[in-house]
Write a structure and sequence with these properties.
The chain has 389 residues and is α+β, with helices and mostly antiparallel strands. The protein has twelve helices and twelve strands. It starts with 10 loop residues before the first helix and ends in a 16-residue tail after the last helix.
Length: 389
Amino acid sequence: MNNPTGLQEFTPLRIAAERILSTALSSQIQLDRLERMTEPGRRNLLIRCWSERTGDFPPSFIIKKVEGEYNPDRHDSADTKRFFNDWIGTQFLNTVSLPSQHSPLFYGGDRILGLIVIEDVEHHDSLAELLLGNDRSLVERALLQYATCLGQLHRDTVSKIGEFERLYRIFAPGIEFTRASLNIQQLQARLNLVIELDCHCLQDIETINQMLLNPGEFLTYVHTDACPDNVLDAGNKLRLIDFETGRFEHAFIDATCGRMMFPSCWCSQALPLDLVQKMEQSHRSILSEVCPSLEDDCIFETALVNACGMWLLYTVLRHLETALVKEQDFGVSTIRQRILARLDAFIHISTQLNRLEGLRSTSSRLLEILNKRWSDVPKLSSYPAFAEE
């Protein structure tokens, strides 16, 4: 069909998608209808497209195109990096994660146009939509599925970094691999806006930094933005989407998202501690299948506290300076609420497991000072299903 219905201005994208799908499915695919899914100005353009082709082929697909300053050969561009992260992460997971199938099916991409064609995942809701609902049993089930999904993602990608890097060298040879690390000097400057750090706190920050730089057997593919709206409820399981910040890092970066109230997400509220602990144990049980040392409580607890400390420091680095000047809304809660809540969560786990005492002491003093300065800031709310607790 020469003039498919809808979005005629995206004809080059349609033609590219037809070529990609025809190659991937070994059959001539024509896209007969297109629907724009995202508003103008978003960092990605999403188009749902349909084919009238019957048989074993899916009825619809998703074209995802990076927007912004994309240039496939501009390796210092954040837009370029997130596009290749998404492409290579999705393709990589298609090669290593069956039958778990953590990501959408990947059909192919166009390096010049900056697009990929992926599965249109059939789903009921996102995890974010479930969390903002009132059905407690449904939310608890979904969160345990979430922990299982992340555990399977990490289990299935242990020792697979070579394949991931091979794909990167093929499609984005100029982009260098760097392990996540803390900017300790910048962190110290942020914290010094409120309090002076002692040597014990700096030692603990360095301990966390070494965990990031040297994850050892816990080096797995991590989403790093396992935000509830990047998780789709596909019925009997959850599926992850949007791998723009995915890379090989320490598995507990993802595993502690629930305890630290989804640090990268607009949908940040509190969960009951007993449910958080069940989520962490579920993840631990699955990852232990390939990392048996995780059955040792000392190793598990150290990784848990260090990762919580990492997310606290991430929050401080990203938000504290601005929050000292003004309050800001971000999704369902405010920035100051998040800072206070993550300080409290880290202090609790650090005290319970008796680790990172220097960072805990500093966090306690910081929390005390901020509680006085921000006395009008209400406590971070629980998700609606747990509001009465």
